[in-house]
């Protein structure tokens, strides 16, 4: 019996991939979008949903709230708190961030660039 690598097995890593593999396509896109935020960054729910709409992943704000609720229920992202302006915030935990970033790279959804050492010819 041939051995399969963990990258081919959807249940590799103790089933961590399973919640992702059973998501509908629009939920996968919304989840992968989160890979552009740094680990532990508290994202405004309104900003997140607006980004999903701008990318064409969802048609309207209500659909974004449904997607967000489902991703939270699946423990792929966390509802964090309500800020001083009454806006809801969410974030990725360490494991979720790593999982999402690896899937994003595999699907060429978002490229994660690491900061280079030294001076850049084109400073930001």
UniProtKB/TrEMBL annotation:
Transmembrane segments: none annotated. Keywords: Plant defense, Repeat. The keyword Repeat applies. Gene3D superfamilies: Winged helix-like DNA-binding domain superfamily/Winged helix DNA-binding domain. The keyword Cytoplasm does not apply. It comes from the Eukaryota. Pfam families: WHD_DRP. Residues 36-91 form the Disease resistance protein winged helix domain. GO terms for biological process: defense response to bacterium; innate immune response-activating signaling pathway; plant-type hypersensitive response. This is Disease resistance protein winged helix domain-containing protein. It comes from Triticum turgidum subsp. durum.
């Amino acid at each position: 019996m041939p051995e399969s690598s963990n990258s081919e097995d959807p249940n590799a890593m103790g089933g961590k991939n399973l919640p992702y593999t059973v998501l509908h396509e629009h939920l996968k896109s919304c989840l992968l979008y989160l890979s552009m935020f740094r680990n532990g960054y508290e994202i405004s729910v309104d900003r997140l949903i607006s980004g999903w709409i701008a990318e064409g992943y969802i048609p309207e704000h209500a659909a974004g709230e449904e997607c967000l609720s489902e991703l939270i229920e699946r423990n792929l992202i966390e509802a964090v708190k309500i800020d001083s302006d009454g806006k809801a915030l969410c974030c990725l935990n360490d494991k979720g961030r790593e999982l999402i970033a690896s899937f994003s790279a595999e699907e060429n959804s978002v490229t994660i660039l690491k900061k280079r050492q030294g001076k850049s010819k084109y400073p930001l």
